[in-house]
Fold:
Amino acid sequence: MRSPNWDSGRLWFPVPNRVCPDELHTRGLPHFDLRHSNLARLLMKSYRKELWFQVPTRRALLNITPQVVQCLRESGIQEGLILVNAMHITASVFINDDESGLHADYESWLEKLAPHEPVSAYRHNETGEDNADAHMKRQIMGREVVVAVTAGKLDFGPWEQIFYGEFDGRRKKRVLVKIIGE
Amino acid sequence: MRSPNWDSGRLWFPVPNRVCPDELHTRGLPHFDLRHSNLARLLMKSYRKELWFQVPTRRALLNITPQVVQCLRESGIQEGLILVNAMHITASVFINDDESGLHADYESWLEKLAPHEPVSAYRHNETGEDNADAHMKRQIMGREVVVAVTAGKLDFGPWEQIFYGEFDGRRKKRVLVKIIGE
Amino acid sequence: MRSPNWDSGRLWFPVPNRVCPDELHTRGLPHFDLRHSNLARLLMKSYRKELWFQVPTRRALLNITPQVVQCLRESGIQEGLILVNAMHITASVFINDDESGLHADYESWLEKLAPHEPVSAYRHNETGEDNADAHMKRQIMGREVVVAVTAGKLDFGPWEQIFYGEFDGRRKKRVLVKIIGE
Structure:
């Protein structure tokens, strides 16, 4: 196969029938650089980041919206979906209000529905753990949220904020942010 | 750079090495119109719509499946995921059965798990609100559903229906429908 | 329009202004075969499979992670999102720990929050069903999980496992696995 051929400032691609971009690339022939094209903007992109937290208490609710917004900005994704999930099974990611009274209400409500004490009331705690209640609380508050991305922003109602709900803290734990879109 | 060159009815693209479609476009050169091509059909599409509701009572469950189906039809998306979420933090979107007895059971069950009265039992209500219980009920019923889109349809089991769960109504509130796919 | 024209081993595409790949294809002209190109790898793909279960008891928790991993492998998708949802409204899909003591705790905890007996306590059961409690339990444990796909794998924390939660078994029921990505 011949190399690209210039003729009075014009380049012709010496392209055989049904050659694919792969081959063009492999052969070192000129090809469209998709990364900077309009086409590239239409192709699916993905982004991944882990957020790390070490909560000094057993339980806490942290507003992680700023970190998630930062991830979205880094991704450059304009339209798509963002998944934010706890990577641990005694923690939650959920969306609600950033109001300290409400957070105190959640704390006492969850303790009523799935009390930490007595630790011996749970069979899971016979394994040497004392966090069975945290596995229950996490199911009520949920593992993950999926949020729409529109025009490069979290597509939120007026009061929506993303929280990390820690129910068995005092150690390093992670939240995963995965964004797919274009 | 030269302008496109016709020779006996044929056009050659005077394309420099690694020119990208963007540049072709900017320079007014001929390019593939992606919107009407097979390629375009493979590219990710997205769709967004807000559904508005004003429930006259404090609490109600509304079957919003027909509106979501209509959104999917408008989107033209054949394969992908559809996110339906409450944009407010005292409301839910969930999937269950459209049976009035079950809805009455949900009402009394949620009141048992997170009673509206006494309003003063919740610290959140010291802010002047009386809807702390609605923030609890919403966590049990969930903020959102993600549904598969297959062959242009909601990929549902036999009894699945999408509901808007209002727990603090008597005002206008929104549900977001976001669809991504191809 | 003329057919493709070879000149000393080189092919020129006789492409009119704004011709689209569709037309090239229709007219039998050479075009890039997207299926085997780098470009194709960037385009969105989707995968769907139903998993069937028949649990011999009324309630049970099944670890379905191996089946979901197998679906992901079959899909060939490297980056994206995987949705796993119960297609029935008296069952859950959720992520937590594969520890038998914890599963026993979930069983007794869910029975406390939404007891099966007395069956007559639920209006839904006046329809001839006896499974109203299963509709409640499913809301606490959730209908679905969305999991990130990264480098062709479920992007999981150290203990995350996917479970099918059956709350009204003794008949064939389904879980849907839908994957979108690239």
Observations:
- The CA atoms of residues 3 and 14 of chain C lie 7 Å apart.
- The radius of gyration of chain C is 25 Å.
